Amino acid sequence: MAEKKSGGGAGDGSKGADGGKKRGFWSRLLGGKDEPQPKETLKDQSEDQTSADVTPEEAAALEKEQPWQEPENSIDESIDKALDQIEEDLKEAPDAEPPTPAPEEAAAKAVETVEEELQEISELEQAAQAASEPEPEPEPEPEPEPEPESESVVTTDGGDDTSGGGAGDGSVATGGGNKEDSGEKKGWFARLREGLKRSSDQLTDNISSIFTKRKLDDEALEELEDTLIQADLGVETAIQITEKLAKDRFDKEISVEEIRSVLRDEVSKVLAPVAVPFELGTAHKPHILLMVGVNGSGKTTTIGKLAAKYSREGKKVMLAAGDTFRAAAVEQLTVWGDRSNVPVITRPTGADASGLAYDAVKEAQAQNCDLLIIDTAGRLQNRDELMAELEKIIRVIKKLDPEAPHTTLLTLDATTGQNALNQVEIFGKRAGVTGLVMTKLDGTARGGILVAIAQKHKLPVHFIGVGETIEDLEPFEADDFAAAIAGAQ
Ligand SMILES: Nc1nc2c(ncn2[C@@H]2O[C@H](COP(=O)(O)OP(=O)(O)OP(=O)(O)O)[C@@H](O)[C@H]2O)c(=O)[nH]1
Question: Where is this region: Disordered (predicted)?
């Protein structure tokens, strides 16, 4: 495993391979010269070489038939002669087109090049747009190398190769235990309220500035609507709230507390239908849960928290480290698995993720697990080839259980803002997302986006995360969330 890690590398290496392909974009843009030699040329050369292979006997026979004759002219003389001939030909046919490249071909090539460049620019723009607030790490681009011969590894109790705790990336938070030990552990609602404080403060500060000593007239309602939209709640919800206020309180003085209360009630109405608890149930054994999402959205952390939760409840849980692009992701999941004493199926970096998923399902079935959670590499929703890879993982799992995955959870980073709407749409279409988890609701002013997502997509929201430790993930409750975001009681 250590060797493979330096191949962590593998990730880089493959990036390099891809980079090799992409290098052309910048060099072409800058008028680069080192385009690789066309394959056809190389092929022709090798074919010529092959035809030149003659056995000594054949050579002797040929020599007999056509004895070797000293050429009349030296090579230089022959070349001079040929050049003279070409010059004469050109004089005779001055309008003759140069043999290559044909103008149509050149034009087609130029158009193709420009199209490629535009495509790559558009991909870069989309990637930049998708990477709003905390910029997701550059996604692992390499196509995974299938490694059918490499065995998946089941790690339990901190296999020796990972005991370095090594997540080493600090991405597995340990604060949970400390908080509990020091008796500082707060109730969930207090943590939720604290987490959503920035979203709530921004929203209610703006509302206060609109309504200080002012009647609820058309202008105030319009300003309120803008404020709600800016808080990412979505146009529909914003209109719903202002209409409700206009209906009940138009032209009357209204306090900020009263507005908070309407805000809480209306947000709660939007969220209630999507606040669906995740039921593990017994219908499927193992229940196969696939975790998907963009880079850094909190998939692995959420899996760790879920593994802890269900193993504490006495369920037999298994994890599959399907992010085979990043060695650190595998280690991170292994650390989470170790904490909860949950086995983790791993494969070396760069291995085929669908092969790993297949092995994991087989293993979880053999061990009669209650829950198998499969991690996947982060991918931007506009990367078609990476989304296709996700589809492949799902196809492969279905070979062992046609109804699997029984749950496909999309993790959404609350700090992403509006882009989360697009993530839900594309992951929904490509991966058949059945439910959502919103992470990082702590410390963002953009928590309102969950309301817009609920309004638009109506997908169940199973959990929300307000921190990095085990106790920072809880089932989603519409009323709590609405009260916390409105800063109301
Ligand atoms: N503040 C906060 N941080 C979180 C939360 N959930 C996850 N994180 C942190 O976000 C970072 C990324 O989380 P990961 O779980 O590694 O995300 P991922 O989606 O698996 O990332 P990739 O494998 O790169 O796609 C880590 O530092 C986590 O500790 C949360 O609810 N709140």
Answer: 1-185
